[in-house]
Amino acid sequence: MGMAIAMRKNHRRRQRDHGYVIVEIAFAIPALFLILLVLFWLVALGLSHSRAVDLAQQAARSLARGVDPGLVDNTIERVMPGAQLDVQFSGEKVKTTVRQQVSPPIPLLSGMSFTVEASSTALREPAGVPWAELPGEFTNDGYIE
Questions:
Q1: Is residue 133 part of a domain?
Q2: 15 located within any domain
């Protein structure tokens, strides 16, 4: 007799738990979706920063070689739309900075945008000297010794 009462109580407890599973799933799915969006946004921030670093380095090298600044600006706008290029010439150095605002993928959080920024500096190269006539040799890491 005691076993039958225990089985009935256990059966009633399982019946009451059926609604809780649905509620837990109803909260878990949006939470997982939000976590995935945040992870996606963090990956997008990382990729934007990587792209900004590459563009800043390429812009500094190109401007140091004497490439037209308008061409460099157009290339940056094509590769990274909305990015700003700041260029500073000081003596023999060219410093470039690339900035871009990165907004979250959720429109409700549009006020929480981050600024991705990368800078690079290069030495100006002598005008009119072909690469083959420059002194020194390139090493594996790209520097002239």
A1: no
A2: yes
Predicted TM-score of the model (pTM): 0.67
Boundaries of domain holding 119? 2-126
Task: Indicate if the alpha-carbon torsion angle 9, 11, 15, 20 is positive or negative.
Answer: positive
Comparing CA positions, the residue from 10, 44, 34 lying closest to residue 106 is 34
The domain total for the chain is: 1
For 55-113, write each residue's pLDDT tens digit.
999 999 989 888 888 888 888 989 899 999 999 998 889 999 999 988 887 777 677 78
β-sheet bridge partners, residue 115: 101
Q: Which two tokens stand for residue 76?
A: 């940056």
Mean pLDDT, the chain, rounded, equals: 79
- Residue 128 phi/psi, 5-degree rounding, is 80, 5
